[in-house]
Amino acid sequence: MARNATSGIRAAAMPLLSASLAALVLGTPASAQEMVYRPTNPSFGGDPFNSSHLLSIANAQNDYKAPAASSSSTTDLFIRQLQSRLLSSLASQVSDAIFGENPQESGTIVFGDQVISFERGLESVQLVIVDNATGSRTEIEIPLLTDGSAASAAGLDPGSLGLGTGAATEGGDLTTALGGF
């Protein structure tokens, strides 16, 4: 029976407790102030006295080391430029042999320790570069732009390949009408 009496007191005190809590919360005035952002970094309008502190923290966290400057003599510079021009001339010769006015079906060009060989296929040119000094081998496949004449020579119908027909203009440019596009 004591249990029923305490639960009755609790039930009677609960509305009184919630009413006094609501009066306490609603009875006090609310106060607020304006939030203002103040940057720390002086680069963005912060206190200029923070600059040395922020710079020292940034330098402490920086792991980057500048590469050592290589001193190049004029002889080294001349050798690099000469080598660059020779390689450029070699690239022009290879390009002319493959795509020039009289393109070759296959060929090999030797330049120092490098051997460059190419073979023209129906749809692409296979280019193989071998460095005999290191033994490395690079293979490049270059697709060919065709006007359908190669397909016709092989006994294929150019229209079935989606190549359409091609015609050379006065300037020597090849214009191709692609079928199905």
Please describe what this structure looks like.
The chain is α+β, with helices and mostly antiparallel strands. 38% of the residues lie in helices and 20% in strands. The strands form 2 sheets. It has a 4-stranded antiparallel sheet, covered by helices on one side. The chain has a two-stranded antiparallel sheet with strand order 5-6. A hairpin with a 2-residue loop joins strand 1 (106-111) and strand 2. 2% of the residues are buried.
Question: How is this structure best summarized?
Answer:
The chain is an alpha+beta fold. The protein has helices at 2-27, 51-61, 74-99, 149-153, and strands at residues 106-111, 114-120, 124-131, 136-143, 165-168, 174-177.
The outline comes out as: elongated
Give Rg in angstroms. 41 Å
- Rounded mean pLDDT is 76
Strand content: 15-25%
- Unreliable stretches, pLDDT < 50, 5 or more residues? 158-181
Largest sheet: 4 strands, antiparallel
Residue share in helices? 25-40%
Number of helices: 4
Oligomer: single chain
Give the class from helix and strand content and strand pairing: alpha+beta
Distance between the termini: 95 Å
Count of β-strands: 6
SSE order: HHHEEEEHEE
